[in-house]
């Protein structure tokens, strides 16, 4: 008998053990690892973006407040000035 992909001569030559790598095809474990790496990077970038947005709001707090006051001021009060 010829040895199979697992090296066991008692298995039929056409069968491949579950979990045995097929040449050129990534395994499920590699795909999961890649997916987890992508998700971790995405989460960290989202956190950084949130921190940048919070910093910008704090830096321009006075300007944002004055613009808000201008938008909500009644029209009659604005025309008198």
Descriptive account of the structure:
It contains three helices and no strands. It is mainly α and 81 residues long. The protein has a domain at 28-80. The model has no long low-confidence stretch (mean pLDDT 79).
Features:
single chain, 81 residues
Total number of beta strands: 0
Strand-and-helix sequence, N→C? HHH
Characterize the main sheet: none
Number of distinct helices? 3
Distance between the termini: 100 Å
Beta-strand level of the residues, as a percent range?
under 5%
The chain-level structural class is mainly alpha
Amount of helix = 55-70%
Mean pLDDT: 79
Overall geometry comes to rod-shaped
What does the radius of gyration come to?
A: 31 Å
**Contiguous uncertain segments of 5+ residues:** none
Short summary:
This protein has 81 residues and is mostly helical.
